[in-house]
Specification:
Elements: H1 2-9, H2 18-21, H3 27-57, E1 66-68, E2 74-76, H4 77-82, H5 90-106, E3 111-116, E4 121-127, E5 130-131, E6 133-134, E7 137-139, E8 142-144, E9 148-149, E10 152-154, E11 160-167, E12 170-179, H6 198-205, H7 222-237
Antiparallel strand pairs: 1-2, 3-4, 4-5, 4-10, 6-9, 7-8, 11-12
Helix pairs in contact: 6-7
Length: 238
C-alpha cells in the first residue's frame, strides 16, 4: 500500500490519504479535507499522546478512552489522531449534544443552542430533538467536507476585544476577531489587560456581578473595566 511505502521511507512523517480521510467523489473537497487533516494531525497527535501519558500517570486504567467528534459521536484516541479533521469542531459539538439531552429531559424538542466561551460564540439548531447536521462547511475560510453538526461560530467570546475604527471619517465599533485570551484577559480581571472586551462590557452593564468571584478566585475590577470602555469606546464614538 502507498501508506506503508511512504511510512518506510519517511517513518517520522504522518501520512494522510484521501481514500481514508474522505473516500468519496468530488476531487476538490476531497483534496481540501485531506490537506486540512495533514495539517492538524501532528498537533492533535502530540496532544492526545500527552493526554494518554498524563492519564496513565494519574492512575487512570480504563481500557477504552474516547474523544468527541464533530458529528456528535465519539472515537478512540488513536483514530482521532489519525483522522484529526473529524474532530475540528468537537468541543462545540459536545455542547450541542448536551443541550439536546437537556432539552429532551425538559420536554423541549426544538432549541437554539448558544455556547459562549473565551474566544468564540457557537450557535446551533435542534429540531425535533435532533441537532441539525451538514456534510461540508468552511473553517477559517477553508472548505472541509466531513459529517458534522451544523454549528455556526463567530468571534464573540468573553475575551473578544472591542475597538473603534474610523472608516471614511466615520467612527464605527468593531468587535473581534482578536481576543485578549486568558492572559492578560479582560481588563476586569486585573491581570494587565488594557483593551476592553465583551466581558468588560458585561461587567460595566452589571450582567456580571462585581461581588461574585469567577471560579471562586477572580474578582472583577468593574472600575477598571468602566475606565477602559470610556477611554477606548465611549470617547472615540463621541
Amino acid at each position: 500500500m502507498l501508506r506503508d511505502a511512504l511510512s518506510r521511507v519517511l517513518p517520522e512523517v504522518p501520512v494522510s490519504l484521501s481514500s481514508a480521510v474522505l473516500p468519496q467523489v468530488r476531487e476538490y473537497h476531497r483534496l481540501a479535507t485531506t490537506v486540512a487533516n495533514a495539517y492538524l494531525r501532528p498537533t492533535l497527535g502530540r496532544y492526545l499522546g500527552r493526554l494518554e501519558s498524563r492519564l496513565g500517570e494519574a492512575g487512570v486504567r480504563t481500557p477504552r478512552r474516547y474523544v468527541m467528534q464533530s458529528n456528535g459521536g465519539v472515537t478512540t484516541l488513536g483514530r482521532a489522531a489519525e483522522r484529526a479533521v473529524a474532530t475540528i469542531v468537537s468541543g462545540p459539538a459536545a455542547g450541542v449534544i448536551a443541550c439536546e439531552t437537556i432539552g429532551r429531559a425538559a420536554g423541549r424538542a426544538d432549541l437554539v443552542t448558544f455556547d459562549m466561551g473565551g474566544t468564540s460564540c457557537d450557535v446551533a439548531l435542534v429540531r425535533g430533538g435532533r441537532a441539525t447536521t451538514t456534510a461540508q462547511t468552511k473553517i477559517a475560510g477553508h472548505d472541509v467536507a466531513v459529517p458534522m453538526l451544523d454549528i455556526h461560530t463567530v468571534s464573540a467570546g468573553g475575551g473578544t476585544i472591542a475597538r473603534v475604527e474610523r472608516i471614511g471619517g466615520t467612527a464605527r465599533l468593531r468587535v473581534g476577531p482578536d481576543s485578549a485570551g486568558a492572559r492578560p484577559g479582560p481588563v476586569a480581571y486585573g491581570a494587565g489587560g488594557t483593551q476592553p472586551t465583551i466581558t468588560d462590557a458585561h461587567a460595566v452593564l452589571g450582567t456580571l456581578s462585581a461581588d461574585a468571584a469567577l471560579g471562586g478566585r477572580v474578582s472583577l475590577d468593574v472600575r477598571a473595566a468602566r475606565e477602559a470602555v470610556r477611554r477606548e469606546i465611549a470617547e472615540p464614538l463621541g
